[in-house]
Write a structure and sequence with these properties.
Blueprint: H1 2-23, H2 28-37, H3 39-53, H4 57-67, H5 78-95, H6 105-112, H7 118-128, H8 133-152, H9 160-181, H10 189-226, H11 232-238, H12 240-257, H13 265-291, H14 299-323, H15 330-361, H16 365-392, H17 399-426
Helix pairs in contact: 1-3, 2-3, 3-4, 5-12, 7-8, 7-9, 8-9, 9-17, 10-12, 10-14, 10-17, 13-14, 13-15, 14-15, 15-16, 16-17
């Protein structure tokens, strides 16, 4: 009896959809409402009607929308695959340079970690964007000059300026990569935001490949252990470096050729993490007040404080770039606004602590580098928060938030270049 009742209901629903589709075939808005009411039933009914409606333009559009068959995975052209193979080999060769006789691994990786991947990715985007030869040559000169500079700095492991240069050089190379991504068009704000979104998708894809690599490594070790062979040392020396060097190249290729693989995951992660980080940061600030933690005299805590600020700022930048895809999600915009406000509070505390330490202990390379970065982030946050507030009040378009972010991206690269190339000279490599 229950089965018959269910069948009757399905039949009535089917007939109801059939009548509504035929009645509203010239009304796209009503068809969209009907589709969202029950997508599966709509598709089944529409497909039975399409033979009679195939001469209708709106029906043709709906047919393509409902039945378009897209390949799940595009392997890329032969040129793409050849470039990826060559780029992976190049990255692997660079990563294995420390294995050459007489090379110091700690010296090499501390100074050259960025050169394993960034040059090949810069080359990839220059090729895809068909960048002018003059621009490509200038990028090559910048990379070669950076290689020479960082490796010729005096070998003083305890030098603050050396440590700062090694930390900021990858940031500088990242902005050179961004310049390559936008095809040298620094005035194109949309391209800059696309680069920011690429970084989010790249991070997701890289995480997936790393986890896959860990799983593969565990299975490989287990299989060889079963036959009494211990390959861990051989694997670490001859395979691991090649795999790690290849992952960023492969991630970039997959994100560029198959954006559908991650373009739905990244916005989801942004939407989930924005409220989570907001609550966490709020609780963190309340805990600081409750415990009476003094950030002005605790240097290590201040460094961690600044690290937290940079991480939160990165989440805000990425989340804002994703939020502009869905301007109707006001809840997400509200959390972003709240997170920006809290970040301004955190930044204000950090800036006041740095100012106190500059007044109390004088100028040092670390204090100068951190104060400049914090000031840039603070100004950027003020602009983002202001535009988010206007968007929530319906006084401005959400896309204006993107423009604030886009204008500041090159400034981070300029600051990183100053810390990398000028700070060691100013402080005499101390």
């Amino acid at each position: 009896m229950e089965t018959n009742t269910a069948e009757i209901k399905r039949s009535v629903e089917f007939d109801d959809f059939r009548e509504n589709i035929l009645h509203n075939i010239e009304d796209p808005a009503e068809l969209e409402k009907l589709y969202r009411k029950n997508k599966a039933v709509f598709q089944r009914v529409f497909n039975t009607l399409y033979t009679d409606l195939r001469h209708n333009t709106i029906a043709q559009v709906w047919n393509e929308r409902l039945n378009y068959q897209q390949n799940e995975f595009y392997p890329g052209s032969r040129k793409d695959l050849l470039f990826v193979v060559l780029a992976s080999v190049m990255a692997g060769l660079i990563a294995n340079i420390p294995d050459l006789p007489g090379m110091n691994k700690e010296f090499f990786f501390s100074r050259n970690i960025g050169f394993i991947v960034f040059p090949v990715l810069i080359g990839y985007f220059s090729w895809k964007q068909k960048t002018a030869l003059r621009t490509s040559v200038s990028q090559l000169v910048v990379i070669l000059a950076s290689v020479c500079y960082i490796n010729l700095l005096p070998d003083h492991p305890q030098s603050d300026t050396l440590i700062l240069a090694c930390i900021h050089l990858p940031v500088f190379l990242w902005t050179v990569l961004g310049y390559s991504f936008v095809g040298g068009k620094l005035s194109d704000n949309q391209k800059k935001i696309d680069f920011l979104r690429f970084n989010g998708d790249f991070a997701v894809m890289t995480a997936i490949l790393v986890l896959s690599g860990i799983l593969f490594t565990g299975i490989t070790f287990g299989l060889f252990e079963m036959i009494g062979l211990h390959i861990q040392e051989f694997y670490a020396q001859h395979i691991l470096a090649w795999g790690l060097a290849t992952i960023p190249v492969l991630s970039t290729f997959l994100v560029q050729t198959n954006p559908q693989l991650v373009n739905k995951i990244s916005p989801l992660i942004a939407r989930i993490f924005t409220p989570v980080v907001f609550v966490t940061l709020f609780v963190f600030l309340c805990t600081i007040i409750y415990t009476g933690k003094n950030v002005y005299h605790d240097r290590n805590f201040l460094l961690m404080f600044n690290g937290l600020l940079i991480a939160v700022m990165a989440i805000i930048l990425f989340s804002v770039s994703e939020a502009t895809k869905n301007t109707g999600n006001r809840i997400n915009l509200f959390f972003l606004f709240g997170l920006s406000l809290l970040s301004i509070v955190v930044n204000s505390i950090a800036l006041s602590a740095i100012a106190f330490r500059l007044t109390e202990f004088g100028i040092s390379p670390n204090r100068l580098a951190v104060s400049g970065a914090n000031l840039l982030i603070f100004i950027n946050l003020l602009g983002v928060t202001y535009q988010l507030l206007r968007a929530l009040q319906n006084k401005a378009d959400v896309q204006k938030v993107e423009n604030v972010i886009a204008r500041f991206l090159p400034l981070y690269g300029i600051w990183a270049a100053l810390i990398t190339f000028l700070l060691p000279l100013i402080f005499g490599f101390k």
